[in-house]
Amino acid sequence: PWGMAFVSGDEVLITERPGRLLSLDLDTGSRHPVTGVPAVDARGQGGLLDIELHPEFTDNRLVYLTWAGACDGGNATHLGRGRLTEDRRLTGFETLFVATPCVASTKHFGARISFDGEGRVLFTTGDRGERGRAQDLRDHNGSVIRLNDDGSIPAANPYVGRDDAEPAIYSFGHRNP
Length: 177
Description:
mainly beta, four-stranded antiparallel sheet, 12 strands, globular
């Protein structure tokens, strides 16, 4: 297990690094696979990582995931979302963000997810084993990324409008949060 999200008082969703998402019934202990999960790169510290429910989950059923996934030149931390159905499927799953540049490494993906009080999603990226990356505002690695819940970049992010910085970065200089 890597991350957990409580759907209700008796059900929790659990990510497992090799790429499985499980629904656990806390009353009976029964586990059921959830389908519709993206393909992951489960080498080293990579795989299916964190999970968080949208703040309005009871109305929209949106589940957010982070994972290490393949991309041009290697792999990266990805953020995506899908809608959880009653029969334990993630439907309409879409990738919202890929931390670039992609790196040929299996270290430090970060990947914790949280929502702020204004409906924006924040997630972390690790420095990918190269500490200097975290100091470069043109590199998403080693940062906290802040997005609107649909994956767009909030106009109020601190580096929006700067030519020398990635606008999705909210905070930088982190090793592997």
